[in-house]
């Protein structure tokens, strides 16, 4: 038995491979270095869905645009009760309203849902009315437009596209595994996506980037970094945005996102400060845990990028879901295509029944 199933192969997939020793992510035969900054989110959807959805529309951007318009009808259910929840809880609740199924229309509605619902929830929590989708725009550009009520610049849309591409799929991470387990019961794509979202929400997975902003704000200036970091580690806290189960060298996603933050001119001062904090964290983790190789993970630069795009930190996990939903939907169909019910064994270490005297 392996703690946390580390190193256990639980599925065979053609979708993506994480080579932690080399620091390489491959998505269906293409390296992330090749995709990030060049491909659009819709291109990666095509790459991931190909062969798993036989009736895949030829014009994916148009189909996704139509799906955004369809799911926007559910935004009317966003009441004050839901607006009091965290953004990811509200987005999950709205997603649960969509009909379940295994068909391509269901898949596209689920693919569209996090972008439409995140914008509506963020605006609703700020007291603003929701903005309807524009089906003619790319998914990233429309996500930003729905969020702000005004068009995004090309650089901003490209930066969000890079983010969505970067996080679209990543081997058998916790949320994808959860999605595959649910898909294996044949519960439907909606159920699989809700399982993925629920796993993503945790701070050890997709919930890390919000607290990274809190950390940067609490540190305030580079001179405070060492004392703040040491105090956090002395308390037994984990430093969000560092460490990874698989990557023991560079996380290629962190590099891709750092490059995208550079496109957003206004953020240079913030980026320099973050780089100083990053260097301090890495140095202190090396001193304190010399036998571990704890490197910067995807979440550190995610936080900077999403902050620069004006997403509130409380909604960062929802933006992660906007991208990762593509991977969950591809893995769910791959699981349905060939997989058996996922039902591992456990090792019983509890008491045995007493023999009757
Ligand atoms: N800060 C401080 N110490 C850390 C960190 C960290 N960020 N990450 C790992 N460690 C330490 C642990 O305390 C542990 O030390 P010990 O052996 O002396 O007790 C050791 O490194 C190994 O930790 P594990 O929990 O066994 O590593 P695991 O592979 O299970 O965890 C994880 C990976 C959850 C990402 C971890 O590194 C972490 O908690 N990081 C912070 C949260 C974070 O950034 N999450 C986002 C991950 S990326 C993603 O999911 C998209």
Characteristic key phrases:
357 residues, mainly alpha, Citrate Synthase, domain 1, 2 domains, 55% helix, globular, binds acetyl coenzyme *A
Summarize the structure.
The chain is mainly α and 357 residues long. It is built from 16 helices and three strands. The chain has a three-stranded antiparallel beta sheet with strand order 1-2-3.
Percent helix, as a range, is 40-55%
pLDDT < 50 runs, ≥5 residues: none
Report the order of strands and helices. EEEHHHHHHHHHHHHHHHH
| Strand arrangement across the biggest beta sheet | 1-2-3
Number of helices: 16
So, the CATH homologous superfamily of the largest domain? Citrate Synthase, domain 1
What gap, in angstroms, lies between the N and C termini?
35 Å
> Residue-averaged pLDDT, rounded?
94
The secondary-structure class comes to mainly alpha
Shape: globular
Bound molecules: acetyl coenzyme *A
Please give the largest β-sheet: 3 strands, antiparallel
Number of domains: 2
Please give the number of β-strands: 3
* CATH class assignment of the largest domain: Mainly Alpha
C-alpha-based Rg, rounded: 21 Å
CATH topology of the largest domain: Citrate Synthase, domain 1
What's the architecture of the largest domain, going by CATH? Orthogonal Bundle
Strand content: under 5%
């Amino acid at each position: 038995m392996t703690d946390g199933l580390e190193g256990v192969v639980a599925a065979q997939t053609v979708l993506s491979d994480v080579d932690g020793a080399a620091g390489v992510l491959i998505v269906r035969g293409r390296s992330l270095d090749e995709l990030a900054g060049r491909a659009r989110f819709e291109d990666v959807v095509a790459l991931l869905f190909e062969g798993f959805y036989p009736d895949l529309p030829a014009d994916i951007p148009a189909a996704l645009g139509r799906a955004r318009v369809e799911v926007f009808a559910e935004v009317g259910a966003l009441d004050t009760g839901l607006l009091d929840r965290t953004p990811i809880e509200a987005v999950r609740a709205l997603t649960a309203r969509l009909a379940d199924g295994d068909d391509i229309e269901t898949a596209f509605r689920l693919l569209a849902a996090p972008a439409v619902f995140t914008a509506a929830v963020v605006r609703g929590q700020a007291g603003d009315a929701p903005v309807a989708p524009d089906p003619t725009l790319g998914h990233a550009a429309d996500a930003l437009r729905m969020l702000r009520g005004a068009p995004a610049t090309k650089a901003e849309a490209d930066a969000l596209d890079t983010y969505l591409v970067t996080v679209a799929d990543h081997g058998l991470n916790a949320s994808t595994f959860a999605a595959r387990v649910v898909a294996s019961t044949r519960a439907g794509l909606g159920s699989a996506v809700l399982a993925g979202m629920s796993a993503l929400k945790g701070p050890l997975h997709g919930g890390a980037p919000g607290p990274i902003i809190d950390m940067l704000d609490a540190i305030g200036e580079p001179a405070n970094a060492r004392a703040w970091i040491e105090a956090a580690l002395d308390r037994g806290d984990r430093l969000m945005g560092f460490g990874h189960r698989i990557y023991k060298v560079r996380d290629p996603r962190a590099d891709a996102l750092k490059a995208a933050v550079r496109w957003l001119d206004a953020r240079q001062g913030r980026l320099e400060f973050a780089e100083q904090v990053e260097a301090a964290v890495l140095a202190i983790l090396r001193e304190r845990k010399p036998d571990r190789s704890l490197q910067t993970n995807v979440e550190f630069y995610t936080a900077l990028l999403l902050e620069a795009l004006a997403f509130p930190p409380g909604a960062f996990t929802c933006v992660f879901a906007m991208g990762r939903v593509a991977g969950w939907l591809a893995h769910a169909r791959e699981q349905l295509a060939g997989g058996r019910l996922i039902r591992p064994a456990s090792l019983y270490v509890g008491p045995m029944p007493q023999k009757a005297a």
